[in-house]
Request: fold
Amino acid sequence: MTSKEIRQSFLEFFKERGHTIVPSAPVIPYDDQTLLFTNAGMNQFKDVFLGTGKRDYVRVADSQKCIRVSGKHNDLEEVGRDTYHHTFFEMLGNWSFGDYYKKEAIEWAWELLTKVWGLEKQRLYATVYESDDEAFEFWKKVTDIDSSHVLRFGKKDNFWEMGETGPCGPCSEIHIDMTPDYSGARLVNAGDPRVMEIWNLVFIQYDRDAQGNLTPLPAKHVDTGMGFERMVAILSGVDSNYKTDVFIPILDTIANITDQPYFDDSRGVPHRVVADHVRCLTFAIGDGAMPSNEGRGYVIRRILRRAVLYGKRLGMDSPFIYQLVDKVIEQLGAAFPDVAPRRDFIKRIIHGEEGRFHQTLDRGLDMLRSSLDALENQDTPVLSGQRAFELYDTFGFPLDLTQILARERGVT
Ligand code: SER
Reply:
């Protein structure tokens, strides 16, 4: 199955079970001051969970554009180095607003994974919150999962919260063991790419307030989220999201533009970072975020600058990331129709920001070089913290780059 078919088959499955299919919300949660970016599919339904809003349906499913680069859910440093974290990703989800609850959520998740998509049952593990006997029993009663594969974990792993405040509740996650010899039981929740979480079924029942208190909600709800790019990798039989049709066309385009071939190993980190980040930038800017010096805009600026720095490792000393926007839109424009009409605007913003950062880098490099030259004849040369700070604070030159370049010249 292609990634497009996988997205479609998820939505069809839940449509057949009475769910209304809705469009993704923007990646900017305009109505919610508690978040910088949409970090989960449930964000757009927060008011329904809290009992302050209503929809025309009680069962709903979608593919939500998500960004996890700030606050409670932040994957930025993992991106490009590992095979399955992204700044921008799609979350496939189904929801019940006070309608079905744990039994159906578990039963249908199992049915989709094992019957429709044919995942091997012996590879699947289910985790439940330590005191959630009900979910524990449903796994055994309504599915044919190996009962030794149902595990209990504490709050850190099995109690889901969207942010510091808001709707939350115990959750039951499904993990897949991709070890060749099915030995992954110990690796569930251990941060090992061979045993990944693929789907989170949250049983929303509380609201957490700013003082940290939990208040039971007027009704109980289901909120599920599946990492789309991970599922595409699994169903494509590959061990990395970057080896799927979600990323290959973007990686190929990067290799063409930069004239640097892509490799699956650590040599490919720069390509992977750029491929990940351009997806994020395209949708963030498309949905209304602008690079700036504070808040959301600063996060966008940092992501763009991170992409430029990795682009430099591919020999790119002038703007090129903006050219990749066309490829992102070619792939995702049909699933998220808001983005294509904003193509030119997105490209213009990225191009301008890339150009300015290259100028900043060039100027900073000149200044750093002359500081390092001045230390040339010292026995144990040290670049002062004050100078490194000034380069960063006044001239926007990244500290880690100062450190790397100083080290290359034998300077502490
Ligand atoms: N809100 C949960 C999550 O993001 C399930 O959708 O994991």
